[in-house]
Amino acid sequence: xxxxxxxxxxxxRSGMSASAIRYYESVGLVEPEGRIGGRRVxxxxxxxxxxxxxxxxxxxxxxxxxxQLIAGFPQETSAGARWTELATAxxxxxxxxxxxxxxxxxxxxxxxRCRCEDVDQCAHRITASRCR
Length: 132
Prior knowledge:
By secondary structure, this protein is mainly α. The chain has helices at 7-14, 18-26, 44-58, 63-71, 79-111, 119-130; strands spanning 34-36, 39-41. Strands 1-2 form a two-stranded antiparallel sheet.
């Protein structure tokens, strides 16, 4: 393993910008192995950690949730147990969001069938349907 990767090399290998890497460093998600001549140097672990971050973001996890995955459990908690706990909560969030989307879809489909002459007539019909 090469422990002396520059931020530019880490950016190239991870597909992230150097500014994103510096941001993830500032919030404690990745860290350089040291400095040489005042410049950050990283090891392979940083490239792998950035891949983990990208994967988790693609799966819908927030940075706070990713931070919890990395450092929010007792040290002895396995990665599988960490993922399971976070994924269970995320799936519950998705179910709520899915239900909200279905309500929105239904409302939009009803709106497309609107035959009201003006917006006030729509408001009257909406009010009447909610007060039944």
